Amino acid sequence: HLLFYIFLPVLIFESAFSLEIHLFRRVVGPSLLLAGPGLAVGTLLVALVTKALYPDWSWMSLLVFGSIMSATDPVAVVALLKELGASKAVATLIEGESLLNDGTAIVVFSLLAPAMQTGSLGMNAGEVIGKSFQLIFAGIAAGLLVGYITVLTLRNLFNQPVLEVSVTIAAAYFTFYLAESHFGASGVLALVTLGLLVGWNRACITPRTEMIMHETWQLLVHVANLLVFVILGIVIVNLINDDNLEGKDFGYVCILYVVINAVRFVIVFGLLPFINCFPQKLDVRNAVLVAFGGLRGAVGVVLALVIANDQPLRRAHPRLGSVVAFHVAGMVVGTLCVNGVLTGPLVAVLRLNAVPLRRRRQMQKAVAAMRDR
Question: Rounded to whole angstroms, how far apart are CA atoms 108 and 67?
């Protein structure tokens, strides 16, 4: 699981740290709904459809595949929405849901992936619940512990960019290692907690250093994404050359792309009445955008690479890891090239970047007042 330890601390911490906390507080309820019940429903629906395509797969394998496919990574969409001037609250909802979604998906992955080889979980219901609680709450505890130490350290540093950036990088990697290796917990949830805690206390970062820190983390994420996709490309080429894929797999990619998007719309609109119970409402137009903007990305790729390179699994099921990696790659490429490209035109068609009437009137009054002077 070396891929976990190299890439996930960078990808997860940066997403949590860069969230606008005051906006995230307004959308945390809807984000939890989409990342909790939403991911559970999505995992099950994808598993059911995949069972029809690959009837020889065990239910453990199907559920792991469903959880990987449900992990969203809408970095490109969020950046585009900010550029187009769409609602910041909706962009934060998409980003926050993705962050919590990744945490939930990896908890499901951690629980079920060891059972893919045998097809049996090997635990009763009580043990599953206990393990789930350990993964979640011990992970949060690890994040709080290291986060508190990190904030105290940063408060005692002033105008030392190299040290301040180094502290956050060391904290991210140490948190993941501590949670995974010593707490028996989810390193991703620990990183989410760490990132949110440091982001909430960003006043402890020297103002001059804060911009340098954000740019450094953005560079690290860019490099991590680049390496992940290069590794995936190499793996897919090797899989094709090794004849681990069949002709039907290429057709099933298109079917699964349609299914993944349909499931995403079912989840968002199925939960829409519950989402609108929270103060931050979501109208139909923005719900379409949230559903369409659920891209797949680097986190799902890392999980797929772990499955593809699991040697005991490959000996027991020679094609399983190869097919999982191939389909995850197909979903990432499909959502980036189709959903990512069409998000801009969709925002324009739905008029989500239009200036609200109330704000236009305020601007007109301000211009009129300036002219009167």
Answer: 7
- Beta strands of the chain (E only): which ranges? none
pLDDT for residue 84: 66
Rounded CA separation 208/183 (Å): 36
Say which range, 19-23, 223-227, 241-245, 352-356, has the weakest mean pLDDT. 352-356
In whole angstroms, how far apart are CA 280 and each of 92, 213, 274, 338?
Answer: 11, 30, 11, 29
How far is C-alpha 344 from the geometric centre of its chain's CA atoms?
21
The pTM is what? 0.85
274-287: per-residue pLDDT in tens? 999 888 888 898 89
Nearest in space to 17 (alpha carbons), one of 189, 149, 197: 197
Comparing CA positions, the residue from 147, 63, 78 lying closest to residue 339 is: 78
State how far the Cα of 132 lies from the Cα of 116, in Å rounded to an integer: 18
State the chain's maximal CA–CA distance in angstroms: 81
Q: Give the integer Cα–Cα distance in Å for 224 and 227.
A: 5
What's the CA gap between 113 and 105, in Å, rounded? 11
Q: 46, 65 in Cβ contact below 8 A?
A: yes
